[in-house]
């Protein structure tokens, strides 16, 4: 298995744009990504670009090129991508200042995250929030649960209905038995 233990992400969203250069400007200047690499073709198209935010990366390029991936992606999109950020309100303010369309203002969610949603110039939906998926995220949900709520009960229910099956943990719950 790669990634994970070494801290290297193992999933990289890949999006093709009609105007990849404009997308790079929006993602870097408006949404805070860092341009790591951009490779252009002789015609000025973006053959491959990598942008980072935190320890994650997104790869992108220009639509309409040759090759199997380009053919497979010909009718694809828009896509939805979720990105973990610490300062949701400040991140949203930066995006708004740049002119990015905000679909949902920063909102406290029942599961303890604070997030907002934006759309780039080609219809891709970008969600930014404090929830981190995975085991650390599950612990975070239990700690946060919901504003004004205290997590209750053991993090993993015992055997029986709703409990572990084949060594897997059951669903996490907030006080009052509400599933996360």
From TrEMBL:
Ranges of biased composition (kind: Low complexity): 169-180
Pro residues bias locations: 152-162
Superkingdom: Bacteria
Region (Disordered): 146-180
Annotated VOC domain residues: 9-131
Stored PROSITE patterns: VOC (PS51819)
UniProt name for this protein: VOC domain-containing protein
Organism, as annotated: Streptomyces griseus subsp. griseus (strain JCM 4626 / CBS 651.72 / NBRC 13350 / KCC S-0626 / ISP 5235)
């Amino acid at each position: 298995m790669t990634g994970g233990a070494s801290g290297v992400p193992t999933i990289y969203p890949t999006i093709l744009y009609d105007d990849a250069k404009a997308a790079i400007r929006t993602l870097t200047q408006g949404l805070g990504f860092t341009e790591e690499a951009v490779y252009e073709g002789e015609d000025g198209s973006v053959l491959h670009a990598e942008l980072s935010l935190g320890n994650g990366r997104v790869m992108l390029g220009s639509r309409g090129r040759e090759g199997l991936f380009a053919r497979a992606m010909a009718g694809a999109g828009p896509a939805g991508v979720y990105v973990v950020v610490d300062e949701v309100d400040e991140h949203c303010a930066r995006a708004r200042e740049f002119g990015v369309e905000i679909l949902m203002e920063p909102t406290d969610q029942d599961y303890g995250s604070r997030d907002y949603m934006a759309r780039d110039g080609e219809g891709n939906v970008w969600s930014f929030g404090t929830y981190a998926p995975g085991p650390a995220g599950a612990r975070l949900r239990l700690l946060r649960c919901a504003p004004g709520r205290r997590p209750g009960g053991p993090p993993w229910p015992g055997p029986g209905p709703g409990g572990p099956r084949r060594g897997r943990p059951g669903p996490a719950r907030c006080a009052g038995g509400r599933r996360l």
